[in-house]
Amino acid sequence: MLLDSFGRIATDLRVSLTDRCNLRCTYCMPEEGLQWLSKPELLTDEEIVRLVSIAVTDLGVTEVRFTGGEPLLRPGLASIVERCSALVPRPQLSLTTNGVGLARTADALRAAGLDRVNVSLDTLRPEVFRTLTRRDRLDDVVKGLSAAHASGLTPVKVNAVLIRGVNDGEAADLLGWALEHDYELRFIEQMPLDAQHGWQRGDMVTAAEILDRLSARFTLTPEVSSVRGSAPAERWLVDGGPSRVGVIASVTRPFCRVCDRTRLTADGQVRNCLFAREESDLRTALRSGAPDQDIAERWRAAMWGKNAGSGLDAPSFLQPRRPMSAIGG
Predict the structure, then answer these.
(1) Distance of alpha carbon 322 from its chain centroid, rounded?
(2) Where is average pLDDT lowest: 22-31, 68-77, 240-249, 265-274?
């Protein structure tokens, strides 16, 4: 197992397939983009599948989510999904994407064994989408969501970040639209993971504010039929259910004490926390011929040193050196 010194067991693996992205979201990266990893630095398809296999068969991982950057930019994505879906025991396989390329790939990913998708969408207004992402691709994202639903990549989850003064007035509209299309909407508090290090707590739209704005139009009832456990989203039934909305309050209501995540970057580094400032190198071990048992032991050691919490409230808190686009969500 991937056990840490506080008794938490990591069963959820987030695998970044690339640090590249075809959007330039203002809360993530600068308009000119970032210096991308070179091809020799990236894990190969075979190396990714081997590490996922070690995680699943030797370390007790039961859920694998592929992330980026934008994972649909990875040429071998469908093959990676297919090979991971053949593992025994079979993990649950999901994908976090901006949705731009999903319309043309949803069917192939479903056929390869992908179970579901999370799509990032912060606004329904084209002009606001262009402001937030610096690209004119809203129609592509909407078509991608529809294609994912039609292909059976369900439940289709939509992740939205509200930015004060930009799209924070759209909370209720986003929920109404998601309900109409049978998507499950989850609002995420903006986190200090931008490349520019410009995040300010006072600019963040909090979970409490989000719930207030939703409650002005909908009746929200806390979902008590399920135990939240390590799930990041607190969920509410909307107008009596069965539809739900979630809020991930990583800043104001963190869930560190029950976190069950381990992360693998596109260049083969283990991160035991989203906000970690240290990483553990598995790529070098892979390429030096280390057996699976040695790699698994390195992974266990990396997770054992996980901190009790993210430290966001500590005066000494420093953002990770890598931005979210290079970590994987």
Answers:
(1) 15
(2) 22-31
Structure tokens at 225: 């039929």
Question: What does DSSP say about strands 12-16 and 63-67: parallel, antiparallel, or unpaired?
Answer: parallel
Q: How many angstroms from the chain centroid is the CA of residue 172? A: 23
DSSP E strand stretches across 108-264: 116-120, 157-160, 184-188, 220-222, 234-238, 244-248, 261-264
Count of CB atoms within 10 A of residue 197's CB? 10
Left (φ > 0), alpha (ψ -120 to 50) or beta: where does 147 sit?
alpha
Question: Percent of the chain scored above 70 by pLDDT?
Answer: 97
Report phi then psi at 269, rounded to 5: -105, 135
According to DSSP, the residues that pair with 263 across neighbouring strands are 14, 271
- Classify residue 192 by its DSSP letter: S
CATH code of the domain containing 73: 3.20.20.70
- Residue type at position 60: G
Tokens of 313: 């409230």
Cα 276 from Cα 310, distance rounded (Å): 8
Containing structural domain, residue 302: 2-327
Residue with tokens 């002009």: 127
Domain count, the chain: 1
* pLDDT band with cut points at 50, 70 and 90 for residue 147: very high
Cα–Cα distances in angstroms (integers) from residue 5 to residues 12, 58, 262, 312, in the given order: 17, 19, 14, 20
Supply angle C-alpha 76, 77, 80, rounded to 5.
Answer: 85
| Residue 40, number of CB atoms within 10 A of its CB | 7
The neighbouring-strand residues paired with 3 are 9
